[in-house]
Amino acid sequence: MQVRDLIPGQARKKSNPSAMEHLSERSAELTDEFKSFVGDMEAMLKNSASLQGEELARARQALEERVHKAKGVVDEKGNRLAQYTKENLHQAGDYARTHPWTVTGATLALGVAVGLLIFKRK
Length: 122
Description:
Blueprint: H1 3-6, H2 19-48, H3 53-98, H4 100-121
C-alpha cells in the first residue's frame, strides 16, 4: 500500500506500460512482419519455378508489391520505435535535470557495484 492510497480523494494516475514492454511490442511487430515477408518469399520462389511468360510476369509483380509493402511496414514501425525512443530519452534528460542528486547517487551506486565485480574477478 502506498501513501497516496491512504489519502481520500487522491487521484491515481493511470499506469502506462513500461518502456521495455513498449519496445518489446514494437520489436515483436517488426519480427512478425519480417517472418511473414520471408514466408511469402519462400512460397513465391517455390511456385515460380515452373512459371513462364505472363504467369512469371504476374509472379514478379506480386513479389515487387510484397517487397514494397514490407519496406513500408518496416520503415513505419522503425520510425515509430525511433520516435518513442527519442521521447523516452527526453524524459530521462528532464528527470536528470529535476533530480540531479538522485541520478548522481544511482550512478555512484552502479559504479561501485561494477567496480566490486571487476575487483572480485582479479
